[in-house]
UniProtKB/TrEMBL annotation:
GO BP terms, alphabetized: acetate metabolic process; acetyl-CoA metabolic process
Organism: Phocaeicola coprophilus DSM 18228 = JCM 13818
Enzyme class: transferase
Span of domain Acetyl-CoA hydrolase/transferase N-terminal: 8-210
Gene3D superfamilies the record matches: 4-hydroxybutyrate coenzyme like domains, Acetyl-CoA hydrolase/transferase C-terminal domain, Glutaconate Coenzyme A-transferase
Record carries keyword Transferase: yes
A GO MF label: acetate CoA-transferase activity
UniProt keyword terms in alphabetical order: Transferase
Entry protein name: Succinate CoA transferase
Family of the protein in this entry: Belongs to the acetyl-CoA hydrolase/transferase family.
EC number: 2.8.3.-
Domain Acetyl-CoA hydrolase/transferase C-terminal: 317-458
Binding-site positions, CoA: 374, 378, 398
Length: 496
């Protein structure tokens, strides 16, 4: 198949002001690189000439500097969905320069297919290869690329030759049927392959191909500290206890682990704990620690929507393709995060909260209820449907000025009904089978930082003598947040 080759600038010139652009990739990898940069340059030039130029961005998840930063910094984004984790994009959203709406990652592709988000004018997809028949072999992630290729009016492909043919065969492309007669997704085991290794695009829609040769650039992890290591150990110890008492099947269950520093520490601790049998991952993001643990024999199989690996770990994977290549599958996020697959496989989900309240509601996304951090990502998909849903968080943030355990979360992403276990460096709160009052006691005693325990008890006691199921004080529920906003320290809270 002979698709026309274009320069990045030629490709970017196809995109018009007001277009909705679908961006392939996931978790800042496997995303297009050259065309978004050229698009940002074009927007800058047009703005200088006094012309408006903005596009709506629909992605699989985070896209990183090459897209979110480049386009946000030239004010070229009218709206953005779903997950983002870039400082410049965050700033654009929090200053109302880009409209943002947050969607569960399992739903965004489906929303596009249902037509909920209007037309996708142009999709930009990174490929690691294009077959003779014009089929697209994706690169380090899948995200919602298959849906974008299906739904977009025009498709631009970046052919990234930096991966040679290492990734061919690692993808499993499958999209669920449309309702009302949708069949089951036939993933019965973590390693079931159910789709194709490539995406067949309608050749009439392919507007051109831009050659690139550039690896993904992922943000480095901050080194572990005693807090993150202790959270990791607490998670591992908890799972060992559950497994030993038979609450987790003897062969163990697949794990999902979130992204970021804490998630990396948790996985490291789980891998290091040799009491647990080797396990598999049914997750969104395959990050650095997974490759080490696979080589160490601790993880037998990993399926996710992206290989979010630093350069050295990607090299390690490519050097060990004989042993690792057949033990990794990259799937659309609609499959990795689907309620059906998560519940069928009995995935144990471990995600990170910004804050949790004493009843177990979790805020993963908004600082003080107002400023977006990243987005709900897949945490809601996994928390609702997991065999066991665990949230972790350090008990304090900003050097102790903020308690991550509060009377009431300032924004709710996962509700008390979805949060079974809460873990901080202080300990583990097992919320299963507990009433709101019992939860409050369990969380304050086991998870809150000692500096904040009395304050939280003072809050609970405000409801003493009143008849209520949940000890909530309407007057005081957000007082700790208010104290931080007004004085810079939650310890200055005074309840009325
Ligand atoms: O701020 O960077 O300025 O120091 O939040 O916090 O402790 O470094 O934790 O990197 O693991 O991120 C929830 C954001 C945690 C992430 C969140 C401040 C803190 C720091 C980051 P600084 P840490 P992490 C599936 C799972 C939602 C999506 C998800 C996330 C910064 O895990 O985006 O779960 N989750 N996906 O100082 C104010 C508080 C705070 C606070 C922390 N209570 N108030 N600031 N911070 N607690 C995978 C995917 O979806 C891809």
């Amino acid at each position: 198949m002979n698709y026309p080759f274009l320069t990045a600038a030629e490709a970017a010139s196809i995109i018009r002001h007001g277009d909705t652009v679908g961006i392939g990739g996931f978790s800042s990898v496997g995303t297009p690189k050259a065309i978004p940069a050229a698009l940002a340059e074009r927007a800058r030039e047009l703005h200088e000439q006094g012309h408006p130029f903005q596009v709506g961005l629909i992605t699989g998840g985070a896209t990183g500097n090459q897209i979110d930063k480049a386009l946000a910094e030239v004010q070229a984004v009218s709206f953005r969905t779903p997950f983002q984790s870039n400082k410049s994009m965050r700033e654009a959203i929090n200053t109302n320069n880009a409209r943002y709406f947050d969607v569960h990652l399992s739903l965004i592709g489906q929303d596009v297919r249902y037509g909920f988000l209007g037309k996708i004018n142009v999709a930009i997809i990174e490929a690691s290869a294009i077959t003779e028949n014009g089929e697209i072999i994706l690169s380090t992630s899948v995200g919602i690329s298959p849906t974008l290729v299906e739904m977009a009016d025009k498709i631009l492909i970046e052919l990234n030759e930096a991966h040679e043919d290492h990734l061919t065969g690692m993808h499993d492309i499958y999209l669920p049927d449309m309702p009302p007669h949708r069949r089951e997704i036939p993933v019965y085991r973590v390693n079931d392959r159910i789709g194709t290794i490539s995406i067949q695009a309608d050749p009439r829609k392919v507007a051109g191909v831009v050659r690139t040769c550039e690896r993904d650039a992922i943000a480095p992890f901050t080194p572990q500290n005693e807090t993150t290591l202790q959270i990791g150990r607490n998670v591992a110890d908890f799972l060992v206890r559950e497994w030993k008492k038979g609450a987790i099947p003897h062969e163990f269950l697949p794990l999902q682990s979130g992204v970021g520093n804490i998630a990396n520490a948790v996985l490291g601790a789980l891998g290091a704990d040799r009491q647990l049998p080797p396990f598999s991952m049914f997750t969104e993001v395959i990050q650095n620690s997974v490759i080490d643990l696979m080589l160490d024999g601790r993880i037998c199989f990993a399926t996710g929507s992206s290989l979010t690996l630093s350069d050295d770990k990607l090299d390690l994977l490519y050097d060990n393709m004989d042993t690792l290549g057949k033990r990794i599958l990259l799937r659309p996020q609609e499959i990795t995060n689907h309620p059906e697959t998560i519940r069928r496989l009995g995935v144990i989900a471990i995600n990170t909260a910004l804050e949790a309240d004493i009843f177990g509601n979790v805020n993963s996304t908004h600082v003080l209820g107002r400023q977006i951090m990243n987005g709900i990502g897949g945490s809601g998909d996994f928390a609702r449907n997991a065999y066991l849903s665990i949230f972790t968080t350090p008990s304090t943030a900003k050097g102790g000025l903020i308690s991550s355990i509060v009377p009431q979360v300032s924004h709710t992403d996962s509700t008390e009904h979805d949060v079974r276990i809460l873990i901080t460096e202080q300990g583990v709160a097992d919320l299963r089978g507990k009433s709101p009052r019992q939860r409050a006691e369990c969380i304050i005693e086991n998870c809150a930082h000692p500096d904040y325990r009395q304050l939280l008890w003072d809050y609970v006691k405000l409801s003493d003598g009143t008849s209520c199921h949940t000890p909530l004080s309407l007057r005081n529920a957000l007082k700790m947040h208010l104290a931080f906003a007004e004085t810079g320290d939650m310890r200055n809270t005074v309840f009325e």
